[in-house]
Amino acid sequence: MSWNFEEITLTAQNEIQSASDLKTLEDLRIKYLGRKGLLAEIYAGLSQLSVEEKPLVGKGANILRNTVTALIEQKYKDLEEKEKSQSSAKQIIDVTLPGVGVSMGHEHVLNQIVDEICEVFEALGFVIHEGPEVETEFNNFTALNIPIDHPSRDAFDTFYLETPDPERPGRYFLLRSHTSPGQIRVMEKFQPPLAVVIPGKVYRPDAVDASHSFMFHQIEGLLIDKDIQFSHLKGLLSAFCKRFFGEKIQMRFRPHFFPFTEPSAEVDISCYICDGKGCSVCGRKGWLEIMGCGMVHPKVFEAVKYPKGKYTGLAFGMGVERMAMLRYGIDDIRMFYENDVRFLRQL
Ligand code: PHE
């Protein structure tokens, strides 16, 4: 049998070129190059040809095979390209769909309360001053007129570090047990008149329960000038309580003792739950304790080397957790530290 290679090549070329999908192209590959395809048939017939014809037909078949293979490969690439671009065109972007929301965090409730309290005092002319959490025994106790045998100086009542204080032999650094050492730092650095608030963390080795934590936050206040009187203290703290808890709140001073203030008092506010009538939150007293305060003790002025008798001052210190618990009716201090977002999100 003789083959018209020129004609076969033209036909194959036309067929391959006009194949419009991969399936048609695959059928053509089988038709020409498959095991039972045209080329297989040509090669199978070679053995029956004469010695002269054999190399001619063989050569023609080889050329045909190479041409058809190349054409199919090229077409295959073209069709694949085409299908890809068609399927990506099908992925329509719906710009009207709502976007993926990013959830915004917010300040921890304790920091919010610290900011809010500090802002009240800033509006009254106070400036914010921060002291370190690692303090000297001198600043935390001695300079504040807390005697050497005071129970709070005991190693069991305070976190002492093993680092000795280079300035005072035999004395060690400790985690401050209140923000009052901040008073000493301010007075050692500045001369009156001065008015500062000192917010920060304090540490006491208390067993953790609903109302105790080994770490909590305080805000200290200190105002020193000539002729500062107890009435200034009372006026200042009444103004603060009204701003923070609302105009309706009642406040009272209860006599108390602190080594670094004289006279000293504890400040109570009327219970926000029962309005002063007595309930389980206030222990039937009608009042809730919110802070300690008093007039700066002359021994403290002596410790910071202020001239004797020249100045008087007032000081106060409040617990931030306590203020937040009273404001929001939170009954367990541990809630602040557990990082449970279901709780934090509400505040
Ligand atoms: N430092 C005292 C405490 O932690 C509070 C206080 C501060 C009292 C300033 C009087 C004046 O209990």
Description:
With 347 residues, the protein is of the alpha+beta class. Helix content is 39%, strand content 20%. The strands form 2 sheets. It has a 7-stranded mixed sheet, with helices on both faces. Helix 1 runs parallel beside helix 4, helix 2 packs antiparallel against helix 4 (53-90) and helix 5 crosses helix 10. The model has no long low-confidence stretch (mean pLDDT 93). It binds phenylalanine. Phenylalanine is lined by residues 178, 180, 220, 258, 261, 292-294, 315-317.
Could you give a short description of this structure?
With 347 residues, the protein is α+β, with helices and mostly antiparallel strands. 39% of the residues lie in helices and 20% in strands. The strands form two sheets. Strands 1-5-6-10-9-8-7 form a seven-stranded mixed sheet, sandwiched between helices. A three-stranded antiparallel sheet has the order 2-4-3.
Bound molecules: phenylalanine
- The strand line-up of the biggest sheet is 1-5-6-10-9-8-7
**What's the structural domain tally?**
2
The number of helical segments is 11
Assigned CATH class of the largest domain: Alpha Beta
CATH topology grouping of the largest domain: BirA Bifunctional Protein, domain 2
Task: Outline the fold blueprint.
Blueprint: H1 5-18, H2 22-33, H3 38-45, H4 53-90, H5 109-123, E1 127-128, E2 134-136, H6 137-140, E3 160-164, E4 172-175, H7 181-189, E5 194-203, E6 215-225, H8 230-245, E7 251-258, E8 261-270, E9 287-296, H9 298-303, E10 312-319, H10 320-328, H11 341-344
The protein binds phenylalanine.
